[in-house]
Amino acid sequence: MGLDAVEIVMGWEESFGIQISNEEAERLRTPKQSIDLIKTKLKMAENTTSACFSARAFYRLRRAILASSVLKRSDISPRAPVRELFPLNRGTAWDLVRIASGFSELPSTGWFSQHRTVADFTKWVVLHSAHKLKRSDEPWTYAEIRYVVRAVVENVTGAKNFADDADFIRDIGFS
Predict the structure, then answer these.
(1) How high is the pLDDT of residue 135?
(2) Which of the four pLDDT bands, split at 50, 70 and 90, describes residue 14?
(3) How much is the pTM?
(4) What is the pLDDT of the chain when averaged over all its residues?
(5) Does a structural domain hold residue 148?
(6) Based on the domain organization, do 125 and 57 belong to the same domain?
(7) Could you tell me the CA-to-CA distances from 1 to 12, 29, 149, 174 in Å, in that order?
(8) Considering its fold, how many domains does the chain have in total?
(9) What is the Cα–Cα distance from 50 to 41, expressed in whole angstroms?
(10) Confidence band, pLDDT 50/70/90 cuts, at residue 112
(11) Closest Cα partner for 159 from 144, 174, 140, 142?
(12) Do 27 and 74 fall within a single domain?
């Protein structure tokens, strides 16, 4: 298994809160096979409405930022630069956001210079903690699993337009 494949499997494990064995990972050749494997590991329901992970992550981060600052709700938009939201005591403020949001794994404030906006942090949460955006009694839908599987592949490889039955190595270019 190449480095891209290892990163992607680790990304799925982190995002879904599951474990994928080496044997299982080695058998995965397409996004569809990956979706099907992850479906078996999650509580899943058919014919339910899919959650919008980006909206859930944004609203949760915004609530946490509001609870951790003196900002107004209108100050916190997807395009808002995080650096400007926390000009002073950035580390302490961000620790409070971690606690208030429940995303203890949020990256450090050093990440601000690379990913500047609330939208960037929203995407980070979806990629790394999608399972924390679901209620414990809320089943996953096929569309949600597919969205996260594809988002992780795109994040690691940069590939954007690929079919679910595309071969990871031949069509998507995994190393």
Answers:
(1) 87
(2) very high
(3) 0.84
(4) 88
(5) yes
(6) yes
(7) 15, 11, 18, 9
(8) 2
(9) 18
(10) low
(11) 174
(12) no
Does position 113 have pLDDT exceeding 70, yes or no?
Answer: no
CA angle 86, 87, 93 (to 5 degrees): 35
* 108 and 127 belong to one structural domain: yes
Q: Would you state the structure tokens that stand for residue 90, as one six-digit string?
A: 């950035």
Residue span of the structural domain in which 91 resides = 53-133
Looking at this protein, which amino acid is placed at residue 44?
A: M
DSSP string, the chain: --HHHHHHHHHHHHHHT----HHHHHH--SHHHHHHHHHHHS-B-SS-PPP-HHHHHHHHHHHHHHHTSS--GGG--TT-BHHHH--SSHHHHHHHHHHHHT-TTPPPGGGGGTS-BHHHHHHHHHHHHGGGGS-TTPPB-HHHHHHHHHHHHHHHH---S--TT--TTTTT---
